[in-house]
Inverse folding.
């Protein structure tokens, strides 16, 4: 992440030998005392961060990464710079989970915030229009002209800008919200994502240390679920409007000026460009790139990247002219 995480405390730095020992592998780099300050994805990592490569889909990010130490497998090592120390493991994702938990030991749990108080007992009471049974955590920062409905909970360290409106029965945690944002009734923002890796007969839970970032002038409809990021952040661009009952999984990045109709689902780590329109009940598979000015017809299933200025529909989603021709 490119910001100081206000929700999870980094226990680093750790010497690379400590990290290698946590993975229970024998091979170590030449400088066992080299200190790693954090774990980040290939895009955001610096020289003192450890990162990982688990798919050839990220070959461009791999070749350009600034990380000096990358967890990967033997099939992908040639995609990384020669100067990079490759930490070769059998299962990249479970190894990343172990290292992430080493740096952020409190990130694996997602229990409720037991430090919340009734808003009437906090400093927010005088600057806020609020309903009944509203709870606020510690260090919540709220801008001017804020309102919040009945039975809603804002957990510790959440930041909310000016002129924002939160509906009833909303839960917000591990989230940074800009100005002029509306979140309607029944939405859950900032819970951990559906991140786990099968390992023999056990599912290994992946720590989610990212946040949700909602930019200015966004409207989020009723019953939405927006998961926080795992290593990177889940981001909603400015002026984007999201209809009811939409699910946005971890690490998804939605651009500016998008319109997303009801019951759309985004799988993890997909990137949506600017000025994108998506019809109701469409599904976007994970790790995809949807370009700018794209229109996706209702009920579509998107399973591959879509270039800029394209209109698609159907399952699998294809050029809309071809879809109409085939379905006259």
């Amino acid at each position: 992440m490119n910001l100081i995480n206000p929700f999870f405390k980094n226990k680093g730095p750790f010497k690379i030998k400590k990290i290698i020992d946590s993975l229970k592998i024998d091979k170590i780099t030449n400088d066992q005392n080299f200190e790693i300050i954090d774990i980040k994805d290939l895009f955001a990592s610096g020289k003192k961060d450890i990162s990982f490569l688990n798919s050839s889909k990220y070959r461009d990010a791999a070749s350009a990464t600034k990380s000096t130490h990358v967890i990967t497998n033997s099939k992908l090592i040639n995609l990384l710079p020669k100067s990079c120390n490759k930490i070769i493991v059998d299962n990249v994702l479970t190894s990343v989970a172990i290292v992430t938990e080493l740096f952020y030991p409190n990130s694996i749990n997602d229990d409720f915030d037991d430090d919340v108080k009734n808003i009437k007992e906090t400093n927010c009471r005088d600057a806020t229009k609020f309903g009944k049974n509203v709870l606020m955590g510690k260090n919540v920062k709220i801008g001017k002209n804020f309102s919040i409905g009945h039975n809603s909970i804002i957990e510790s360290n959440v930041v909310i800008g000016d002129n924002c409106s939160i509906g009833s029965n909303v839960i917000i945690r591990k989230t940074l919200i800009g100005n002029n944002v509306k979140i309607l009734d029944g939405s859950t923002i900032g819970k951990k994502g559906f991140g786990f890796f099968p390992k023999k007969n056990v599912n290994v839970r992946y720590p989610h240390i990212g946040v949700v970032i909602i930019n200015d002038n966004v409207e989020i409809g009723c019953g939405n679920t927006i998961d926080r990021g795992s290593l990177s952040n889940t981001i909603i661009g400015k002026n984007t409007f999201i209809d009811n009952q939409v699910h946005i999984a971890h690490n998804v990045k939605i651009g500016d000026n998008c319109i997303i109709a009801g019951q759309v689902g985004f799988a993890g780590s997909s990137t949506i460009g600017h000025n994108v329109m998506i019809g109701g009940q469409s599904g976007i598979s994970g790790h995809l790139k949807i370009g700018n000015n794209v229109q996706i017809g209702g009920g579509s299933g998107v399973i591959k990247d879509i270039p800029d200025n394209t209109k698609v529909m159907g399952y699998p989603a294809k050029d809309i002219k071809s879809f109409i021709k085939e379905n006259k």
Q: What stands out?
A: The longest helix spans residues 92-103. The mean pLDDT is 93. DSSP finds four helices and 37 strands in the chain. The chain has two domains: 14-103, 117-326.
